Amino acid sequence: MGKKDINLIKKRGRRLGLRGKIRLINLAGVFSLLVYFSVLLTLFFYSNMIKKQEANLLAIKESREKKIKDLVQIESLQQDVKVRLSALTEVFPQQVDLKEILDYFEGILPEGLRFDSISLSEEGDVSLNVKTQDSLVLEEIEKKIFSQEAGGELESAKLTSISRDEEGGYNISLSFKLKSLGFNDL
What we know:
- The structure is a single chain.
- This protein is of the alpha+beta class.
- It has two domains: 18-93; 96-186, Gyrase A, domain 2 (2-Layer Sandwich).
- The chain is 54% helix and 19% strand.
- It is built from three helices and four strands; from the N terminus they run ααββαββ.
- The protein has helices spanning 18-91, 98-108, 136-151, and strands at 114-120, 125-132, 154-164, 170-178.
- It starts with 17 loop residues before the first helix and ends in an 8-residue tail after the last strand.
- 10% of the residues are buried.
- The mean pLDDT is 80.
């Protein structure tokens, strides 16, 4: 008789039958479908996020381009006013130098303001009407004017009125009493 080997360790692996193979294929299919749909959802939400960011950036770009156009227009209008004032000072040489006064107020008032009107009295009172689109300019006006009033050319400064127009801009009226710039000689 021949030797027969006795295996004391049971075989752990079973051979899969047809049902086991079908079940394994079904599980793999369901798992791959879940992965596929999760990738699709991730791509969908990512593309929506990118579209929203693009829209926000375009809105910011358009608003900044509008501000730049407004500032260019303001600057050209101020240059036009300076040219007209210099022509007027040539015609009326005995008058107070309006260009110097306008330059002075351009220096103490923050950027982003558009001069709407300016009026002068013989007593040295100056009334300014300015317009702006930026509400932060109001705080800058306060800081700059009152620092100038403390040690500058202003004897007094008053904020006469603030109103908001239909387009969302601000109309600001200011009145000043100047110490010098030719007013004391009138």
